[in-house]
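Morning!

This is the sequence you dropped in the shared folder:
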Amino acid sequence: AANVAMEALDPIKNTGNSHQRVFVVEVMGRGAGDIALWSGIATGADAIVIPEREYDIEAIANKISENRKNGKDHGLIVLRRNGRC
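The structure's back. Tokens below.
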């Protein structure tokens, strides 16, 4: 399942790069974040949000802003929130 998610995330990341966009992509996984975690690591996501860990939306926004200041004009956030997907 992580490979399927990774195969879907790669073209999204490329589109974000060519169009200077940040994409937030929610992946499958019932109540667990394993697929989001492994596919996010494999594709080099800027942030990975999983139900097993607390997250700070401001920290994620700051990271994307910092990336822009450093010349990276695209981003990918992979998430698997708690609840139904």
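Headline: The longest strand covers residues 22-26.

More detail when I'm at my desk.
O.
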